[in-house]
Specification:
Length: 193
Amino acid sequence: MTKTTKTAETATTKYAALLRGINVGGNKKVPMAELRQVLEGLGHEDVQTYLQSGNAVFAAAGGKDPDALARELEAAIEAHFGFRVPCLVVDGAYLRAVADACPFPAADLEGKQLHATFCSEQPAESRFASIDAPAHLPEEYRVGDRVIYLYAPNGLGRSKLAEALAKPAVVKGLDVTTRNWNTVVKLVELTQD
């Protein structure tokens, strides 16, 4: 075995796990310390969590498939906590690409004004046919690579466009989870090598 092969086999990739719908209103409680234990139990290293809303960062050997990592994590969470939690796993390079491709002036906006909805697969343009974008101005959205960028100047909680983007016509059959821009930036930072 050459040194290069051994290095390739032991190389790790940093990932972010984005859990949907936990620790909201007393439902689906997932303490972050236990989430870290679950991830470590799967053999992941350098496990960290960020906030209480289901963001974890970890390193996995050999550049594993993010979808396979997500399914493993969903199964482990269900076994540990007794309920299913949809998970998306993305690598640091993808997160960096999402941040770099942001169509809005992120540096000029407050984190609560800009959001990224991560999707398990690329949503077809036809999913957005029912959305009357001009009717929602000044709110705007753009579709990127498995992500929907949302500019909501008054915040996500008051956003009518966010409601429209969450309707079944848009997201049915997809696992989706939204993060504000401050969280996206922090996850980019935590997943860089």
